[in-house]
Structure formats: C-alpha cells, structure tokens
Write the structure tokens for this entry.
Amino acid sequence: MAQKASKKKKIPRQPMPEQKPEIRRRNFDEVPLGYTPELAREEAARCLQCRNPGCVKGCPVSVDIPGFIHLILEGDFSGAAHNLWTKNALPAVCGRVCPQELQCEGNCILAKKGEPVAIGNLERFAADWEREHGTGTLPARAKPTGKKVAVVGSGPSGLTVAGDLIAKGHEVTVLEAFHKPGGVLVYGIPEFRLPKDIVAQEIHTLEKQGVEVICNAVVGRSVTVDELFEQGYDAVYVGVGAGLPRFLNIPGENLIGVLSANEYLTRTNLMKGYLFPKYDTPVPKGKDVVVLGAGNVAMDSARTAMRLGADRVRIVYRRSREEMPARAAEIHHAEEEGIEFFLLTNPTRYLGDEKGHLTGMECLRMELGEPDESGRRRPVPIEGSEFELQCDLAIVAVGSGANPLLTETTTGLELNKWGYILAQPETGKTTRRGVWAGGDIVTGAATVILAMGAGRKAADSIHEYLTWGW
Amino acid sequence: MFKIVGREEMADGTVILNEIEAPLIARKAKPGQFVILKATEEGERIPLTMAMTDPDKGTITIIYMVVGKTTALFRDLKVGEAYQDVIGPLGKPTHIEKFGNVVCVGGGTGIAVLHPITRGLKEAGNHVKAIIGARTKDLLILEDYMKAASHELFVCTDDGSYGHHGFVTDVLKELLDKGDIALVVAIGPVPMMKFVSKITEEYGVRTLVSLNPIMVDGTGMCGCCRVSVGGKTRFACVDGPEFDGHQVDYDELMKRLQSYVEQEKECYEDYCQLHDSESLLFSNVEK
Ligand SMILES: Cc1cc2nc3c(=O)[nH]c(=O)nc-3n(C[C@H](O)[C@H](O)[C@H](O)COP(=O)(O)OP(=O)(O)OC[C@H]3O[C@@H](n4cnc5c(N)ncnc54)[C@H](O)[C@@H]3O)c2cc1C
Ligand SMILES: Cc1cc2nc3c(=O)[nH]c(=O)nc-3n(C[C@H](O)[C@H](O)[C@H](O)COP(=O)(O)OP(=O)(O)OC[C@H]3O[C@@H](n4cnc5c(N)ncnc54)[C@H](O)[C@@H]3O)c2cc1C
Ligand code: SF4
Ligand code: SF4
Ligand code: FES
C-alpha cells in the first residue's frame, strides 16, 4: 500500500470495458460492462488518499471517497459498499448517473494535471459487487416509534427519505402515482444506462426493511394530503419530481410524430415499448429523428431512437457545444453511436402532411450574443437564415416544469412563481406544518444525487420533528 | 390486484361491463371521472370512464367497447380474475349545478360515460332529457339505466330498427327548436360530438363534450393527450376530459387518435392469432 504518490500518478486511468458502439446502438443492454475486481483495484491504487480531499467537497452528499476507495484497494469490496451507504442510499445508481466531471471527479486533485480517479466507476463497482455477492444483511432498525410518515413519490428523493426513516424506527408508506416505483430512474433513464433490475432490487430491499410501497396512488386525486393526515400520518414528504413536459409552443406541435421526451421515454422504458409487440404499448419508430434539446433527457431520447432502428438521429440545439448540459459521458456515447449534432439551430415551426403526420421542421440558424442570466451566451437568430429540415419524428426535450396536480389540491403550501414548492434548503420544511418537500419539485429538474441529498436532510428534520416537535 | 366481481356482455358481445373491487376509488369518484387500467405485466394502460360507482360496496363499473388488443384482453377476464392496476379517479369531475333544462346526448359507448353525468344532473334538480343512439338496435346499451337517470328518454337507431329512425342530432334539433335549453352534454364518437357542437353553436346553447385522446399516465406528465381547445393546447387528462364543445378542434383529435393504427393492428393480429391457436388447442383437448 505504501506506494509513493509520484509512482501512483503514472498508472493510467482504467477505462471501463464497454459494448462496441456499432453493436450497442441497436440493443438496449447496458453500455459499460463494469470493472473486474482486478481493474477496480488497479484504479483504486491511483487515488492519492489526500488528507484534505477535493473530491469529497465536490460530492453533494460528501461520500467518504478516499475511505471507500481504500477498502477497494484492500479487497474489502463489501466494506466499501457499506462505507458508501452511510452517505448515499443508492450508490449503484449514482455511480452510473452522477455528473462526476462536475462533482467528485471534477474536484479530484489528479484532474488538475491529468485524469481524475474514476470515482463513479469505483462506486458502481462496489455497489454491484455487494448486490451480487453480498450477504444481503439489512441495515439495523431502531426501536419502533409508533409514528407514521407518508412519502409521496418514489423517485430517488422519496426513496432516500423512506430508507432513512424506516431505519430510525418510524413506519413509512410510499405512495406512487405510476404502477411501478422508482420515479425517473424507472420511467425516464433508459435500460442501457441504468438497468431496471438494479432499481427494483433497491426498492425490494426497502420493502424488506418494512417500507410499504403503494402504487397507483395519485396524491391529489386518489387521496389528498389532508386525508393522509386524517388517516393518522404524522408527517408527509412530497417528492413528486418535475413531471410537467415543456413544449416549444410553436405552430404544428400537435402533429402526429411530435412527442415530449417524457412520453417517448415512458412508453419505451416504463411500458417496455422497445419489446413491442411482446409488450402492448407502441412507441413511434422514426426513420429520420430529431431531438430538440441537449441535456441528459435529450441524449437518452436520441440514443433510444437509434436503438429503435432510426436511420438518422439529430440533436437540434439552439446554443453551442460548450453549453450542452448533458453529462460528458452521455455526449461522448451518443457521438460514438452516430448521433449527429445540429447546433446553433432553433426550430420555428413544424411541418406536416394532410393526414397530420410530421414531415419536417422550419429552423433558424443562431449565433451567440451576450451572456444571459444563466451566464451562458444568449443565442440570437441570424436574420434570413430559415431552412427546412426533414424528419418523421420529433422528440421535445427542452426541460420540464412543476406538475400542479398535488400542489393545487393541497392548502398551505407556498409555491414560487414557477409553481415549485418553497422549502427551507437545510431542512426541507415547507410553509405547512408537518409537510416537507425536496428533489425536483423544489429545485426544478436537477440531478439524482441532489434529490437524494434533499431527501436525507428532510429525513433528519422529520425525525427531529417526530421526536421533539416542529 | 383489482378483482372483477361482476361481468356482463352487452350489444351483442361487442360491449363489456366489468364491476371491479376498488374501494378507495369508489369512495372518491365523481361523475365525469375516469380510471386507467392495465390487466397484465405486459399490458398497455388505457383510460375508461366509470359508468357507475358503489361506494358502500367498494366497487366501480366500467363499460367498454372491444376495439383492439387491450379491450379484447379485458373481455377475456372472468369474474374472480383481476386487473393488475387500476389508477384513479382521474380527470376533473363534471361541473354539476342547477342549470334548468338540460339535454344529454350519447352515442355508442359514450352512453356509458354519459350515464353518471345524466344522473348527477337530474339529482341536482335539472330537468333532463336524454337522447341516445346506436347504429342498430342490438348495439344499443344502457337504455334502462338512461331512462331511470333522466326525465325523458329518446332513442335513435341509424337503421330504424328501434326508436327514431335517424341520428341523435335530428331529435336534438327538435328539442332545440322548442327553446329554453340551458345546456347540452354530448358524449360519443368524435364525429357525433363535432356535429352536435355545430348545431348547438347555431342555437347558441352551451355544450359540454368529453374527449377521448390517447393517454399514458393520466396525470399531466407526458402530454400525449393534448387537444386544441380555443386555439390553446390543453391536456385532456388533467384539464378535462370535458371541454366547451364549441372550442374543440375535432379534426386534430380525430387525426391524433390515428397515431398508432399500424402498431395497433399488428398487436391485435398477434392477439387474434394467439387466441385462435389457443382455442384450437382446447378444442383438440376436448376431443
Ligand atoms: C431522461 C432523464 C435522464 C436523466 N439523467 C440523469 C443523469 O444522468 N444524472 C442525474 O443525476 N440526473 C438525471 N436526470 C435527473 C434526475 O433523474 C432527477 O433529477 C431525479 O430523478 C429527481 O428525483 P425526485 O425524487 O425529485 O423525482 P422523480 O424521480 O421525478 O420521482 C417522482 C415520482 O413521484 C411520482 N409522482 C408524481 N406526482 C405524484 C402524485 N401526485 N402522487 C404520487 N406520486 C407522484 C412520479 O410518478 C415519480 O415516480 C435525468 C432525468 C430524466 C428525465
Ligand atoms: C378519458 C377517456 C375515457 C374513455 N372512456 C371509455 C369508455 O368508458 N368506454 C369505452 O369503450 N372507451 C372509452 N375510452 C376509449 C378507450 O380508452 C379506447 O377505446 C381504448 O384505449 C382502446 O384500446 P385497445 O387496445 O383495445 O384498442 P387499440 O387497437 O389500441 O386502439 C383502438 C383505438 O382506440 C384509441 N386508443 C388506443 N390506445 C389508447 C389509449 N392508451 N388511450 C386512449 N385511447 C386509445 C385509438 O384511437 C385507437 O385507434 C375512453 C378514452 C378516454 C381518453
Ligand atoms: S454520489 Fe455522485 S458525486 Fe458523490 S461520489 Fe458518488 S458519483 Fe461522485
Ligand atoms: S481527490 Fe482524487 S486522489 Fe485525492 S482522495 Fe479524492 S479521489 Fe483520491
Ligand atoms: S395522459 Fe399523459 S399528460 Fe395526459
């Protein structure tokens, strides 16, 4: 173990083996195949075990990165997984989907001179190893408190709250609108990036610990927050995500062949439309597909379209490459799979035939002007640059908003001007006594780890309330 | 699991009624609301309106026409078997108050959707006339229920095999000519709703229609159910399903309902083949 730092730096970053682009672009199997124990230990050996590690500061939930990496190096993979769990309830998920280049890895000391330690890959390795080889021992549960908590929404933030509070001895019921729990992890992020079995197993573990998961429960319709209190719940956590699709509001948007990414991905992932007709839900199969937007949702949509058999898939984005918000790995994977990028391009109108089918789009070319509020240079249209782009499927992935179904039916919850719930950042407390909120419904569409971080803080605050009062 | 406790075949076996155990939904449902159902793990989620609810017994009743694979699978479910998922109540309830004289117009399985609304309007003190229609006598459903739910019932068949020979709109016109009608509610095939709305617009009588676009989640999350109403895009599952009939773009709705015809056909043929080979199998066994 006592290698010198200078020697360590020379080991190159161990890439994770992957399916080849020309093969994977037509299947739904996971793209990266995972580290072998040997590769993992080799990568773990690159970590300098910094005394004042930048990586931990970069992680929103302060995972003990040098600690778990050290355990991997020692060959104690199970220990590494348990170390991860103390800060992060879903390491197998985060290792796969966190924007590491902006968080842990972006702040790794090695990133300054070369390539950072592959923290995400190692996190995934430890969690996968424990899932496949571990003893399955459940975390200890505190003495029952007799208090009941309702968690609305089973995305990463709701699941974190449920896991933390069940361990503290409270009774927890998760209410989910869909027929399957998991939130975006199940209906949004595709199988080839996050296998659904992993999410299902995490949820199964929670159930074994005693969490009750009730699906098909649309809070606001099937039952209201007021009724939950009447039924004897002592606290309610709202983690319903940002489930409202945004459209461009340009002419022709209701043509057949224009779908929100939410619809496209839900049909494919949750309803398993990619296995049609074994599964009954159809997904439109475009030959010439355009995806509007350049975030993770757009990359997932584009790569899905390719896997469903498209001849050509184009990402159309009004800003430039530097501004694309997707994870670096997703952009890289998309390019490898043959997705084209049409940058500085803004659609102004959809075109269709007499049967109402999409046939193309009218677009304007853009150039970058002065920086806007977000600090990114604002795209401005170039006059007279209109041109037509052919396509038979357009997937709109330009962001999402706050779904009003729950907030409209719950009194006492103050919202901001965009309809997101106001909650204290440190506790998740809303303006209504006994109600907490966190994740995308508070911050707007963000990341898995931020949603989980908010869940953890809220769980601490709920526990405190159930023990001491508001 | 949501157990089927009652089942009936109507309209020559083309329309099926299922009474389903769903106590929580039965307690909350109001006229005009719907549920989304899924029968099996591989199944599609489809929306159906609650034609009746029994909060004491804890059941809801759906009535649906067999038009494709999913409704055919539903038809195969027997009493004692169950739906894997039933989600609801969804959609905005019908706004029911005392309007005065109301005419409720229903066609096809739209009559099932219309029934609880008609009853609600009558209970709220309105004078309710109902007009229901079908292609032919054997396809007419819920006549007795509609009779009980209204003050006066008119029946029409396209082929004249029963009641008035002609379309529901003929009778509607006569009633409108007599005047003093505060509201028309029209639920049925899209062309029927379009036609009714055109007529009532001429008479300047407020008209409610219930739209049936393709849906997935039913909670406003996917935008699949978008319809144009008054030039604005609305989501039928959360903003509707009922809208001002004079503002709806019916042509767009009709086109959008065709979004998946090819795949629906493939799916249904798949089902029919399987179904045929199974019945072949069983007939062999019997021999
Ligand atoms: C396609 C896609 C790809 C993404 N990729 C990444 C990525 O690579 N990395 C990353 O970090 N982040 C990614 N994100 C973002 C990330 O998934 C979200 O920030 C995160 O899931 C938010 O978690 P949440 O718990 O707040 O809500 P969600 O995951 O949205 O879960 C909310 C749950 O609440 C349910 N619900 C909603 N309303 C109700 C109601 N009224 N009653 C009951 N239940 C209700 C919903 O059905 C849903 O299951 C991606 C998002 C999408 C859509
Ligand atoms: C709010 C609402 C309430 C409804 N209530 C009733 C009712 O009470 N009784 C009744 O008989 N029908 C009702 N419908 C229509 C019913 O949902 C469709 O007939 C059913 O989905 C057809 O499915 P299928 O697989 O059997 O046929 P398919 O072969 O899939 O489709 C036949 C046609 O049904 C429509 N359709 C297909 N999938 C869906 C979907 N997921 N959602 C909506 N429409 C779809 C399409 O126009 C399609 O061309 C309602 C629809 C809505 C939106
Ligand atoms: S949780 Fe995410 S940010 Fe934190 S260490 Fe793991 S991968 Fe990095
Ligand atoms: S900053 Fe990099 S090298 Fe240092 S402890 Fe973290 S991962 Fe290891
Ligand atoms: S069905 Fe998805 S928004 Fe209405």
